[in-house]
Design goal:
Number of domains: 1
CATH architecture: Alpha-Beta Complex
Strand content: 15-25%
Distance between the termini: 37 Å
Helix content: 25-40%
Shape: globular
Largest sheet: 10 strands, mixed
CATH topology: Spore Coat Polysaccharide Biosynthesis Protein SpsA, Chain A
Radius of gyration: 20 Å
CATH superfamily: Spore Coat Polysaccharide Biosynthesis Protein SpsA, Chain A
CATH class: Alpha Beta
Structural class: alpha/beta
């Protein structure tokens, strides 16, 4: 079993055998274990690349990736937390500035210089994805210093287990003031969790806290689709100022993943203190 490299067994195998296996099926022998193991091997061989876009210029917060938060540049926080995801095979920061490259490499990370004039972070991610050639590419926002690595894993899993070639997280809105906040992107889904529409307006119109969902800016793509996506056109995207509508308008499905993670982006100076308090709380109580 050690010689073959990847050992698998059914659920009813002897415990001594299970201890030597990297994958134990949820099914017993003769009840679907072989098919389950083959499915596992097929998906496990698909390479998942994490890319963190980090542009130096920012209108509201110049040099944002290098802004110091709790004694570290923000990009270091994002990189360190994303690197704790178990299902990423590689993690690269995509940037337009040598200073960001230096900050990432100083902590043992990998960064890649990209074109300076990309219109969006997604285009910057796509440049790296085209060079690396992984099966899946996860776009991890560079202004999320508290990103939950388990959520990244959940997105990779959603891509491997569902037919839509794009996956993204959503969470229930608990703060009533966010229902009509245009900076909070709302989403409605079908019964299988596939997105029907995203909007800055409240959708559905009668939505309430706890049952209305907001979108969290983390995307997983099958890389082949990502490279097509950057060349697509969309009127809905222009009207709503939401990139993800480009996919829906062009006929592609988006699988959503529900989470209780509360996104905490850093966009302006006042966000830094808010995130630092959260980091202090994490260190004190040992929570995510």
């Amino acid at each position: 079993m050690k010689t073959v490299g990847t050992a698998c067994c059914p659920a009813d195998a002897a415990q001594k055998v299970k201890n030597e296996c990297s994958y134990v099926s949820q099914y017993n022998g003769g009840d679907g274990a072989v098919r389950d193991i083959l499915n596992h091997l097929e998906t496990a061989s698909q390479i998942a690349l994490g890319v963190i876009p980090a542009r130096y210029g920012s209108t509201r917060l110049p040099g944002k990736p290098l802004v110091e938060i709790a004694g570290k540049p923000m990009i270091q926080h994002v990189y360190e937390r994303a690197s704790r995801a178990n299902l990423l095979d590689d993690l690269i920061v995509a940037t337009d500035d040598e200073r960001i490259v230096e900050a990432v490499e100083a902590v043992g990370g990998t960064a890649m210089m990209t074109e300076a004039d990309h219109p969006t972070g997604t285009d910057r991610v796509a440049e790296v994805a085209a060079n690396v050639g992984a099966d899946f590419t996860i776009n991890i926002q560079g202004d999320e210093p508290l990103i939950n690595p388990d959520l990244i894993d959940a997105i990779v899993t959603a891509l491997r287990e569902n037919s839509p070639k794009v996956a993204t997280p959503i969470s229930p809105i608990e703060d009533e003031s966010l229902l009509n906040d245009e900076n909070t992107v709302k989403v409605v889904t079908d019964a299988d969790g596939r997105a029907l529409y995203f909007s800055r307006s409240k959708i559905p119109s009668g939505g309430e806290t706890g049952t209305t969902y907001k979108h969290i800016g983390l995307y997983g793509f099958e890389t082949e689709l990502l490279l097509k996506y950057i060349n697509m056109e969309s009127e809905l995207e222009s009207v709503e100022d939401l990139e993800q509508l480009r996919l829906l308008e062009n006929g592609y499905e988006i699988q959503t993943v529900e989470t209780d993670y509360n996104s905490k982006e850093v966009n302006v100076e006042s966000d830094i203190m808010r995130v630092e308090k959260e980091i202090e709380q994490i260190h004190t109580h040992g929570t995510q």
